[in-house]
Design brief:
heterodimer, A: 252 residues, alpha/beta, Rossmann fold, 6-stranded mixed beta sheet, 23% strand, B: 427 residues, mainly alpha, D-Maltodextrin-Binding Protein, domain 2, 2 domains, 4-stranded mixed beta sheet, two-stranded antiparallel ribbon, elongated
C-alpha cells in the first residue's frame, strides 16, 4: 500500500476497446488529492466515462495503473469497492420498489444493517427533502426526486471517494441547488468527489480542480480560477472549454 | 450471506410488484399444459376412441363387401357414411368429398371383388393339387387382383392412415382365410366325395397380452395425461428462461447492474438471488401444473394424473429441472444485449431442445443423428426422469443420472455466464 496524500493516482492510463484502433483514453496521468472536488470535463466521446469506469473497477485499462487510496483493483477490488460510492448518470434504481426499499437494498450491499442503516436512510432522506416520500415507489417520482435518491444510494455508506457522472442532468433549478449544496457539505466532511459534467458554470463553482479531456488526452488541468486567469481573453470556464475543444459538434 | 438474503428479498419484491408479469408467469403455463394435453389426448385416442367420419362405397354386394362393411360398423373407430340425402355415394362423389376435406377417408370396394378373391383362393388350391392329377380339380390357375381404393385427405396424418389401412387389412385377410378354408373344404369334398365334408373353423391361435412393464411390480396404464403432463410441464418450466433473462437485461438497461458492479459482493451473489427466486417460481409452476393434472383435467374429461408414491424423486427432478432452466436463463440474460435477442434466442432454443427432447415426437422414432443430438437436450433428460417416475414407477435412484445431468448443465451455464461476464470486464 502506498502512503501519500493522493487518494487517486492515475499513471499512464490507456484504454483500447476491443476492435478499435483508436484509444478511448491515451496515456493519461492524474493525481487527485484527498478532499478535492475534481471535475473531469470534456465533450461527448472525450474519454470521461471510460476514465470513470476504470476508476470504478468496471473494467481494466489496456495499460497503465490506477491506485485508489494506495490500492489496485487487481489485488484489492473488494476493499476499494467499500470505500467508493458511484452515482451513475442513469437513474440506477428499481422503479417498482419504494425509495426506502431501494436504499435498504443498496445499504445492505454496502454492509450496512439494522438501526445504523435505518438512521442513515432517514438522515439522508431528510437532508434531501424526501422524508415524506420514503414509502413511494420510484416510478411515481419526478425527475429531480429520482436524481436525489440516485445520489443518496451512492453516498449512503459514507464513502471516502464519490464518483458522480452528470449528477444534475435534466433536473430543475431547485433540485440542482439541493444536490450541489449537499455535495459541498459532503466534501467538507472530507469526502473526495470526482465529478463529470457538461455544465461549465456548475463545474467552475463546485470544483477545486478540473481537467479538460478531449479525444482521450488531457488538454489542460488546474484550478478553475487559475485556468481563467491564465487566459487573458477569457472570463469563464466555458469559453476556455470551447477554445480548447473547438466548436465542432461531437458524436457520442 | 446477508447480502444474498437482501438480494433475494429485493428480487422477490420486484417480481411480486409486476402483477401482470406474475399472472403471465403462472397462468400461461397452465393454459399451455391444459390445451396441449387436450390436443394430445385427441391424437393419443385416435385409433382407440375417436369417432372419425368415413365414406364407404360398397359396389361388391357380396362377402368381401359385407365383411368390410360389418367390420367397419362394428369398429368404434369410424362413423361410416354410405348415403347423403338418402342417395348412395358414388366413387366420384366420394373422391370429391375427400378432396374437399369434408371426410378424412373414402373407401371404395369394387364390384365383383368377392368373386375375384374366390377365384384367387381357388387358383391357389388348384395349383397345390394340380400335381396330384386328382380328378375333379379344376385347371383354372389365372390370378386376378382386387383393388380396394382408399381416397385420403392429404391433411390426414400418416399414423391415422396407417391404422385405418391395418384395420382394413385385418378384415380382408380374415375373410381370405375363411374363403380359403371354405374352398379347400369344397375341393376336398370333390376329390373324396365318399368322405364326410370337413368343416374348418377358424379361431384365434395367438393371443396378445399387453403388460406395461414397471420396476415396482405395480402396473400403470399409460394415458394421455400421464404422458403429456410431464412433457409439457418440463417445456413450460423452461420458459422461465425468458422472464429471467429479461430481468437481467432490464437491470442492465436501468443502470442498476452498473451500480451493483461497483459495489462489494460478487456477480455470483446477484445471480444466485435471481436463481433462487426464479427457481421458486418454477417449482411453484410445477406444483400448480401437477394440481391441474390431478384436479382440473378430470373435470375436462381427461384422465386423472397419478403422481405415484415417489414424491421425493418428483421434487428432486422438479428442482433439478428448475435449476437447469434458471441456469440457462442466467446465461442468456448475461450474453444477450437486448430483450429481442434474449426472447428470440431463448424461445427458439427451448423449442429446439423440446423437439430434440421428445416432447412432440418420441426420440426412438427420430433419425439416428437426431437421436444422438437429443442426448444433449436438457428437456430430454428432464422428460426421461419424469417418465421414469410417472410411467415406470421409478424412485430417486432411478432418476439419479438425469438429475446429475441437469445439475451439471446448470453449473455449466453459470460458468458460461461468469466467464462471459469476466470477458466483458476485460474487453
Amino acid at each position: 500500500m502506498q502512503e501519500n496524500h493522493h487518494i487517486i493516482e492515475i499513471k499512464y492510463l490507456t484504454k483500447y476497446y476491443k476492435g478499435s484502433n483508436t484509444p478511448a483514453i491515451d496515456n493519461i496521468s492524474l493525481d487527485i488529492h484527498k478532499g478535492e472536488i475534481y471535475g473531469l470535463l470534456g465533450p461527448n466521446g472525450a474519454g470521461k466515462t471510460t476514465t470513470i469506469s476504470i476508476l470504478c473497477g468496471l473494467f481494466g485499462p489496456t495499460s497503465g495503473n490506477v491506485f485508489i487510496d494506495g490500492m489496485e483493483y487487481q489485488h484489492s477490488a473488494e476493499k476499494i469497492k467499500n470505500i467508493i460510492g458511484v452515482v451513475p448518470q442513469e437513474i440506477a434504481l428499481y422503479p417498482s420498489l419504494t425509495a426506502k426499499e431501494n436504499l435498504t437494498f443498496f445499504g445492505h450491499m454496502y454492509g450496512l444493517y439494522g438501526k445504523e442503516l435505518k438512521n442513515r436512510i432517514n438522515e439522508c432522506l431528510e437532508l434531501f427533502g424526501l422524508e415524506k416520500n420514503a414509502n413511494r415507489r420510484i416510478k411515481t417520482f419526478s425527475g429531480g426526486m429520482k436524481r436525489r435518491i440516485n445520489l443518496i444510494a451512492g453516498i449512503l455508506h459514507k464513502p471516502k471517494i464519490i464518483y458522480l457522472d452528470e449528477p444534475t442532468v435534466g433536473v430543475d433549478v431547485q433540485s440542482r441547488n439541493v444536490i450541489l449544496d449537499h455535495l459541498r457539505n459532503i466534501n467538507k466532511e472530507g469526502t473526495t468527489i470526482i465529478y463529470t459534467s457538461h455544465y461549465m458554470e456548475e463545474a467552475e463553482n463546485l470544483c477545486s480542480r478540473v481537467a479538460i479531456i478531449d479525444q482521450g488526452h488531457i488538454i489542460t488541468e488546474g484550478k478553475p480560477k487559475d485556468l481563467i486567469a491564465s487566459q487573458k481573453e477569457f472570463t469563464d470556464l466555458e469559453s476556455i472549454f470551447l477554445h480548447k475543444t473547438g466548436r465542432a459538434l461531437r458524436d457520442e | 450471506m446477508r447480502r444474498l438474503f437482501s438480494s433475494i428479498y429485493k428480487e422477490f419484491l420486484v417480481l411480486i410488484r409486476d402483477r401482470a408479469g406474475l399472472a403471465i408467469l403462472f397462468i400461461m403455463p397452465l393454459v399451455l399444459i391444459l390445451i396441449m394435453t387436450l390436443i394430445q389426448d385427441a391424437t393419443f385416442r385416435t385409433v382407440k376412441e375417436v369417432n372419425i367420419s368415413m365414406i364407404l362405397v360398397n359396389n361388391d354386394k357380396d362377402s368381401l363387401g359385407e365383411a368390410i362393411t360389418k367390420g367397419l360398423y362394428a369398429s368404434e373407430f369410424f362413423q361410416i357414411v354410405e348415403e347423403i340425402d338418402g342417395e348412395k355415394i358414388t366413387e366420384e362423389l366420394a373422391k370429391e368429398l375427400v378432396a374437399k376435406g369434408k371426410y378424412k377417408l373414402g373407401i371404395v370396394i369394387p364390384a365383383r371383388a368377392t368373386d375375384a378373391i374366390r377365384g384367387n383362393v381357388s387358383t391357389l388350391i388348384n395349383k397345390s393339387f394340380k400335381s396330384f392329377n386328382i380328378p375333379g380339380v379344376k385347371k383354372r390357375t389365372k390370378k386376378s387382383t382386387v383393388d380396394i381404393t382408399i381416397y385420403i385427405d392429404p391433411a390426414t396424418s400418416q399414423s391415422f392412415k396407417n391404422s385405418v389401412l391395418s384395420s382394413l387389412k385385418e378384415f380382408t385377410s380374415q375373410l381370405e382365410i375363411e374363403m380359403f378354408f371354405k374352398n379347400f373344404s369344397e375341393a376336398l369334398a370333390q376329390m373324396m366325395p365318399d368322405q364326410k365334408p370337413i368343416k374348418f373353423e377358424s379361431f384365434e391361435t395367438i393371443k396378445y397380452q399387453e403388460v406395461y412393464a414397471s420396476t415396482t411390480g405395480v402396473e400403470k396404464l399409460p394415458n394421455s395425461v400421464q404422458h403429456n403432463v410431464p412433457a409439457w410441464t418440463m417445456f413450460a418450466m423452461f420458459f422461465i428462461v425468458l422472464p429471467l433473462a429479461g430481468n437481467i437485461i432490464k437491470e442492465r438497461e436501468d443502470g442498476s447492474a452498473f451500480r451493483l458492479k461497483t459495489m462489494p459482493g460478487s456477480f455470483v451473489t446477484v445471480m444466485f438471488s435471481k436463481i433462487f427466486v426464479f427457481l421458486g417460481v418454477a417449482f411453484l409452476q410445477f406444483i400448480l401444473m401437477l394440481l391441474v393434472g390431478v384436479y382440473i383435467m378430470p373435470l375436462m374429461g381427461l384422465p386423472q394424473l397419478e403422481i405415484g408414491p415417489h414424491k421425493i424423486a418428483l421434487g428432486v427432478m422438479a428442482l433439478a429441472s428448475g435449476l437447469a432452466a434458471t441456469g440457462y436463463g442466467v446465461a442468456i440474460g448475461t450474453i444477450a444485449t437486448t430483450h429481442e435477442q434474449a426472447a428470440t434466442f431463448g424461445a427458439v432454443s427451448i423449442i429446439i431442445f423440446a423437439a430434440l427432447g421428445g416432447i412432440w415426437v418420441p426420440v426412438y422414432v427420430m433419425p439416428h443423428t437426431i437421436r444422438i443430438l437429443s442426448q444433449f437436450s436438457p428437456l430430454h433428460w428432464g422428460l426421461n426422469g419424469f417418465y421414469d417416475i410417472f410411467l415406470r414407477g421409478g424412485d430417486i435412484f432411478v432418476v439419479l443420472a438425469e438429475t446429475a445431468k441437469l445439475l451439471i448443465f446448470f453449473v455449466l451455464m453459470l460458468l458460461v455466464a461468469m466467464v462471459y461476464n469476466n470477458y466483458t470486464r476485460t474487453k
